[in-house]
C-alpha cells in the first residue's frame, strides 16, 4: 500500500507516519522508524533489562527486586546473581537456573545485566 511496514503488534497494513513514529490506527501501537528498520534487518527478538541494557543468551544478570515464587513462601532476594540465561518467547522471557531455587522463568523487567 504505502511501503510502510505492517504493525508488529496486530500485523495491520494500515500504518502511518507521524513525525519520527509509525502508528497503527487499529490497535494504537506506536514504534519508532528506527525500530522498524532494525526489525526488517533482523528477526531477532530484542530483550532489555530493567534499565534498558540489551540482554543476550549466556549473559549474567542480577535480580533487581525481591521476587515471590508463586505457590510457595520463598522469595528470590534482590541482588541474587543468575548466570548463563537463555532468552525465550512468552510472558517470562528469560529461562535460567536460580541458585538455591533451580530452573525458573524470569521477566526481564525485574533483572539488571551484571557487569
Task: Note down, in words, how this protein is organized.
By secondary structure, the protein is mostly beta strands. Helices cover 8% and strands 32% of the residues. The chain contains 1 helix and 13 strands, in the order βββαββββββββββ. β11 (94-98) and β12 form a beta hairpin. The longest helix has 9 residues, at 33-41. The chain is elongated, with a radius of gyration of 18 Å. The mean pLDDT is 86. Residues 4-32 form the Protein YjdM N-terminal domain. This is Zinc ribbon domain-containing protein YjdM. Pfam families: YjdM, Zn_Ribbon_YjdM. Belongs to the YjdM family. It comes from Ferrimonas gelatinilytica.
Please state the average pLDDT score. 86
Shape: elongated
Strand arrangement in the largest pleated sheet = 1-2-3
Q: Please tally the β strands and state the result.
A: 13
Number of helices: 1
Strand content: 25-35%
Summarize this structure briefly:
Residues 4-32 form the Protein YjdM N-terminal domain. This is Zinc ribbon domain-containing protein YjdM. Helix content is 8%, strand content 32%.
Key traits:
115 residues; 3-stranded antiparallel sheet; 8% helix; elongated
Amino acid at each position: 500500500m504505502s511501503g510502510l511496514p505492517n504493525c508488529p503488534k496486530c500485523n495491520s497494513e494500515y500504518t502511518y507516519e507521524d513525525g519520527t513514529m509509525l502508528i497503527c490506527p487499529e490497535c494504537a501501537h506506536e514504534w519508532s522508524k528506527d525500530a522498524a528498520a532494525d526489525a526488517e534487518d533482523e528477526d531477532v527478538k530484542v530483550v532489555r533489562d530493567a534499565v534498558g541494557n540489551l540482554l543476550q543468551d549466556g549473559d549474567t544478570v542480577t535480580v533487581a527486586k525481591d521476587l515471590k515464587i508463586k505457590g510457595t513462601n520463598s522469595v528470590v532476594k534482590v541482588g541474587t546473581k543468575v548466570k548463563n540465561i537463555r532468552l525465550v518467547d512468552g510472558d517470562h522471557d528469560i529461562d535460567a537456573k536460580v541458585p538455591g531455587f533451580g530452573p525458573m522463568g524470569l521477566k526481564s523487567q525485574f533483572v539488571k545485566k551484571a557487569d
